[in-house]
Amino acid sequence: MTETRTAIVTGAARGIGAATAKRLADDGMQVAVLDLDEAAAQPVVDEIIAAGGRALAVGADVADSDSVKAAVERVAAELGAPTVIVNNAGIIRDNLLFKMSVDEWDLVMAVHLRGAFNTVKHAQQYMVEAKFGRVINLSSTSAQGNRGQANYAAAKAGLQGYTKTLAIELGKFGITANAVAPGFTVTEMIQETADRIGVSLEDFKAHAAKEIAVARVGYPEDIANAISFFADEKSGYVSGQVLYVAGGPKD
């Protein structure tokens, strides 16, 4: 019988994180739904429990090491040793370079890069002890560059290098590390971008779909499906990879 695994999904109160938490629960995992606002994560937990799964809402600031350490310890105590980590928490502070503030740069780096560092740093002992681990980091097609997103693009590109290094360092312990890089995916972040450029969400989606090979935009469930593959016990020979889930080829 396959052991029941415990997953931590960051930024899981909504969007890709919520869809991923529910998908991993459907896959048979116990899921810690981690978000800056614990109360906001509770509805996702309630939905998982109603469907017969086991989940826990956890409040933590991924950019703060002590906060993450406490969260990981709580998950280990209340759910079980976390051996699947999905680093999804993210923010945007879009601006053209000449307008971008140091705070806008630093905050994006802190949430995406330091956040992904903190979770794996504090969870790796549980994975090493279990001789099993799955780390899935959320990158983006923006890692290849995107106007008005110097901070976000740099962070998402950094996550790819981080992922490949984790794969090298942790592989001998039965731990894989991979990245999923979504293309245009309908989330609150996309709504923020549409608002920033002054178009309606429907027009933004329609324009984007014309540029995508499969002629449609993505949804959180599309990304969760790819994450589910990397998290699977049968995916142990796939590590250090970046999978673009973007409706067509990306360089």
- Tell me the series of helices and strands, N- to C-terminal: EHEHEHEHEHEHHHE
**What is the top-level CATH class of the largest domain?**
Alpha Beta
* Spatial order of the strands forming the largest sheet: 3-2-1-4-5-6-7
Number of helices: 8
Whole-number count of domains = 2
CATH architectural grouping of the largest domain: 3-Layer(aba) Sandwich
* Low-confidence runs: none
Question: What fraction strand?
Answer: 15-25%
Radius of gyration: 17 Å
- Give a quick account of the main beta sheet: strands, pairing sense, barrel closure: 7 strands, parallel
Q: What level of helicity do the residues show?
A: 40-55%
Q: What is the CA–CA distance across the termini?
A: 40 Å
Question: Which structural class fits the helix and strand makeup?
Answer: alpha/beta
**What is the name of the CATH topology of the largest domain?**
Rossmann fold
In round numbers, the mean pLDDT is: 96
Number of strands: 7
Shape assignment: globular
Name given to the CATH homologous superfamily of the largest domain: NAD(P)-binding Rossmann-like Domain
